[in-house]
Write a structure and sequence with these properties.
Length: 287
């Protein structure tokens, strides 16, 4: 089980675990349990047969578990899975078999499950929102992934990785960060975590017209004072930087919260939680 904030890089960790395992020559398939409507999640995971529902493809379709046979399936935001789907997932864990929607013939699968969540899943068990008998087999080896702001030593390495990947897609070459750009990356609070970093680097790679990416191409809010970090103690400094970053992004988006959350690389729900956490006063009409 991978535990961490939204955008903290849980899928990257899952990819690394898969790549270092004996299953690396087989597929790794990821699915966000919170992004797919509950009525569609079952067919996505387990597949379906022809005629099982309106719009079902002729001949049916295998689900993620069948397609990942021999490999790994990454279930992101497992805490958002509905109660009835939790029962069906538990059955797969217990039997190693899936049944496509619309038939009762079991299909054997050999799949490693890596689950991830951004909530305290044990608390959800205590509240009765998540099955205890599913929680324990998923939580055999929990790994806590700190937010990016707490592992600044990773920022430049990740940024360089995302840059190399972006310029390969863009068919550019030889592009690198200026030293002051890398300092700016390290000094930024990254409220959207790894996902925001990836978006910022991809944007900079698209805008780059020469071989050096300078700080202005990052498009980051002005979170630095006189070229240095805010002089505040420990966690308070990080919170003040994050608070200012979020407010700057909202203002830059002209109080459009959808655009602000996109620029930060976080969901609207996460942005609302941050606004509430820091008691930000959004004076203008927001959408």
């Amino acid at each position: 089980m991978l535990l961490g904030e939204t955008g903290s890089g849980k899928e990257l960790f899952a990819q690394s675990i898969h790549n270092q395992s004996p299953r690396r020559d087989h597929p790794l398939l990821a699915i966000n349990c919170g992004a797919i409507p509950r009525e569609l999640l079952e067919s996505e995971l387990f597949g379906y047969v022809e005629g099982s529902f309106t719009g079902a493809r002729r001949g049916g379709q295998p689900g993620k578990f069948e397609l990942a046979d021999g490999g790994t399936i990454f279930l992101d935001e497992i805490g958002d899975m509905s109660a009835d789907m939790q029962v069906k997932l538990l059955r797969v864990l217990q039997t190693g078999e899936v049944c496509r929607v619309g038939e009762h013939k079991p299909i054997s699968v050999d799949v490693r499950i890596i689950a991830a969540t951004n909530v305290q899943l044990k608390n959800e068990v205590d509240r009765g929102n998540f099955r205890e008998d599913l929680f324990y087999p998923l939580n055999v080896f929990p790994i806590v992934i700190p937010p990016l702001r707490q592992r600044s030593e990773d920022i430049v390495h990740l940024a360089r990785y995302f840059l190399s990947r972006s310029i390969k897609v863009l068919k550019k070459s030889g592009i690198k960060f200026a030293s002051d750009t890398e300092r700016s990356l390290v000094q930024y609070a990254w409220p959207g975590n790894v996902r925001e970093l990836e978006n910022v680097v991809e944007r900079a790679a698209n805008l780059a017209e020469d071989d050096i990416i300078k700080p202005d191409l990052l498009g980051l809010p002005a979170v630095l004072l006189n070229g240095s970090r805010m002089k505040l103690p420990g966690a308070r400094r990080l919170e003040e930087v994050e608070k200012k970053t979020i407010m700057d992004s909202i203002e830059a988006a002209k109080f459009n919260l959808s655009r602000a959350s996109h620029s930060l690389g976080i969901s609207r729900a996460t942005l609302y939680n941050k606004i509430k956490k820091y008691d930000l006063q959004i004076l203008r009409q927001s959408v």
